[in-house]
């Protein structure tokens, strides 16, 4: 899993990696909030009919609450600057993207926005270099 010899990570990629950690915390907060709204106020979301992944809104609330907590905690692991933090960050960002893809019929604009942010987080964590981040004073 080593880096290619002579390959440099740009300062921009390291900055986006810092952004990714912050965004994971923010995305986690947003997802947890969406989950709590669905759990507390079951009639808030408009439902479509005949969707393959049709769950009760309360079920989606619990799914989003759990995903939000996982993504938020993973954001803090990214700040640790260790490989396992990045791996967990990528896995939870993928999980968040899948959850929001399945959630498209309930709140489409929100789901697309979170999916786009998840893709940016995944890219940033794949490009992240701990030594470059240390040079920026991140770690």
User: Hey, roughly how much beta strand do the residues contain?
Assistant: under 5%
Number of domains: 1
**Structural class per helix/strand content?**
mainly alpha
Helix content: over 70%
Give the H and E element order. HHHHH
Q: Give the overall form.
A: elongated
The count of strands amounts to 0
Rg computed from alpha carbons, rounded to a whole number of angstroms:
17 Å
Tally of individual helices: 5
Main β-sheet description? none
Please identify the oligomeric state: single chain
N-end to C-end Cα span: 21 Å
Q: Can you tell me about this structure?
A:
This protein has five helices and no strands. The chain is an all-alpha fold. It has one domain. Helix 1 packs antiparallel against helix 4, helix 2 runs antiparallel to helix 3 and helix 3 runs antiparallel to helix 4. The longest helix has 30 residues. It is elongated, with a radius of gyration of 17 Å. It holds the Pfam family DUF7144. Keywords: Membrane, Transmembrane, Transmembrane helix. This is DUF7144 domain-containing protein. It comes from Actinocorallia longicatena.
